[in-house]
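lol so apparently i was supposed to do this last week
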Amino acid sequence: MLVCKNLSKKYGNEKLALDSTNLKIETNGVFALIGRNGAGKTTLVRILSTQLMPTTGKAEIDGMNVVEKTGDLRNIIAVIPQEARPPPWTTPKQLVFSYLLWRGFSMKEADERAEDALRKLHLSEDKNKASRFLSGGTKRRLLVATVINSGARILFLDEPTTGLDPISRREIWGIINDLKKDCFIFLTTHYLDEAESLADRIAIMEKGKILAVGNIDELRSRMKYQYCIRISDDFKIKLKEGEVVESNGVKQVLTTKSEAYKISKHFIEKGAKFSINPVSLDDIFYYFVKKPLNEEVEGE
Ligand SMILES: Nc1ncnc2c1ncn2[C@@H]1O[C@H](COP(=O)(O)OP(=O)(O)O)[C@@H](O)[C@H]1O
Ligand SMILES: [Mg+2]
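anyway here it is w/ magnesium ion bound
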């Protein structure tokens, strides 16, 4: 279990970066922490991975307090920080090999493990090239190669695909799907499609607070409204239950099943152009995040 209890972090005199964060999740599969820039994702990752002290509150991973058991925890975790880039003049082989030596493997074992990791991530051909000549996607794959044979069974990947092209993103997704068989992956992202396709469980973070946790069905069932109707025409909508929100010039009606049924019928009769779907992670995220923090969320 990974447990955070009233975990807070304040940098100097700034406002709280983490504000009494509470979280309880199993340490298996893929967990995605989603939130916009500045929500507090990296701060939480840095505290959980023993790189940063919380201001108040506590956090434990599999019974180990992140402040008291840093040595034990560091043996079982590996982190790829958000800002990590391979050193420009180091080759993939040198980087993976030296990281494994640093993790405590013998020269021989580090060499074998490095070769194996490079092979698994299709980096063997480029293994002796200075990293500065690799593409952005290949650099990210290289960072993943450093950790996959490190013996860590908990991996923190902080925004592993930010700034990558769609093909490289898919490659990283494939790697994460392979890794999750043996490891617990704690992923942060602001790409909601990434969270939706990779994660078994998702937490929504905003202004240093976790607003909701669960798999997508659980998150959806906690919403007041389960259906989303998108309308491109300029129709006036009278609603008994639901709310109208506007996103990118498209009107969206979030509503209940019975109301959705009535509205669709009305639109069909009027010949309006519209689409109707169960709410997506985008809608769920938007719904939770736009609520004032002190407003009670349905189902809590
Ligand atoms: N070293 C720091 N010093 C001061 N403020 C920081 C520092 N790191 C992060 N913050 C602030 O803490 C908040 C949360 O940041 P961060 O954890 O990086 O969010 P995220 O990863 O979700 O973008 C932001 O308001 C950010 O400006
Ligand atoms: Mg971040």
